[in-house]
Amino acid sequence: MKTASLEEIFVYPVKSCRGIARESTRLAATGLAGDRHWMLVRPTGRFVTQRELPRMALIGTTLDESGLTLVAPGRAAVRVPRDAGRVALAVPAWKLSGSGIDCGDEAAAWCSE
Description:
Layout: E1 9-11, E2 20-22, E3 27-28, E4 31-32, E5 60-64, E6 67-71, E7 78-81, E8 88-93, E9 96-101, H1 105-112
Antiparallel strand pairs: 1-2, 3-4, 5-6, 6-7, 8-9
């Protein structure tokens, strides 16, 4: 009988940005805890991926209970609070549709640069 082994676990808090290595993680109803709960979305409502913008791989992520921090080479970090408190917007992703929260002008300007 063949056996499988798990060598590494990564979560990607922001779709298409750099992941975070974990020694362990919880399994939630939606998959790995903290995995792909954030994404960059154009003003048109269309989400952005590394396929279009390969430099997204340079965006590092740190996730904690209060929110998300984004870092990139040559840039000051930007903090995105988990309780953004903004209105939910419809956001389609591939064949799925869901809702997303606008995280504000500071985060949008940082990501756009």
